[in-house]
Amino acid sequence: MYRSPHVRWVARRPPETFPPPRPPQNPGPAPIPRYTYLPAWGLRDEPVTGDDPAVTRPRGSALPATLRVTAIALAVTAVVHLLRYVLLVINRTKPIPGWLDTASTILVWAAGVVAFLFFCAATAAVVTWLRRTRAAAYRRHGLLEPRKPWQIAVYAAIPLVNLVGAPFLVRELLEQRDDLDRPAAGQILRRTAIAWIVVNVAAVAALCTRFIASRSDSLQTGADGLWLTIISTALSAGFVWFVLPGLVHVFDDTPHVEAPARRWVQVA
């Protein structure tokens, strides 16, 4: 009977060994997670702490050289357009040779294309410098860059958008740099923004006048467009050579060592 396949043995614990029942838990609603920035799901990118110059300092050594070359290209373009304007003035009283007119036209187009290429290179260099400098500034406070790279590129590189977007990005950068002289840096930023607005207004005026001149046969309208192009290009060259490097120097972390006025040389 006990070995019958219809009998099953079941082992049970004694009732006195049972654990006491757990009380019902009612912790309430779970807290809602909040983030100071939009989380990017995946591995967490911890800010690097240390004094590694390659990490804490953005590398912008190529930016000053790019700005200088771009300013030179813009200045050369302004001079070439000025020569073209002088030829147009001379042509009003007496005709100029055809080869001279053709040569000046080719020179104007070539200088404009070269200046545009250098302008694109300078814009890319400034966007790269701004992205790295902002990342380093936020890293000082243990934060991540809240702006995406494409947002920085749109705000700082798209014409007319960068009229407001570029000063806005630099203003955010200045708010993270508590090691700087805020009043002095803010004054430089305001001067740069005003100069930037003047340069863009001159460029838009020159483009509109040149477009109107291309649609009409008026020599005076063409001369006015050429003259506005000279002014716009000269203002752009001055902005790139004088104003923009000053703003970059404000956020430069590279220590500046003054060279001694007198150097002693040991004579054997």
From TrEMBL:
Domain spans labelled DUF4328: 103-243
Transmembrane segments: 65-86, 106-131, 152-170, 193-213, 225-244
Keyword Transmembrane helix set for record: yes
Coiled coil ranges: none
Disordered: annotated segments: 12-31
Listed Pro residues bias regions: 16-31
Keyword annotations from UniProtKB, A to Z: Membrane, Transmembrane, Transmembrane helix
Pfam families noted in UniProt: DUF4328 (PF14219)
InterPro entries referenced in this protein's UniProt entry, alphabetically: DUF4328
Top-level taxon in the UniProt lineage: Bacteria
Protein name in the entry: DUF4328 domain-containing protein
Organism in which the protein naturally occurs: Gordonia amarae NBRC 15530
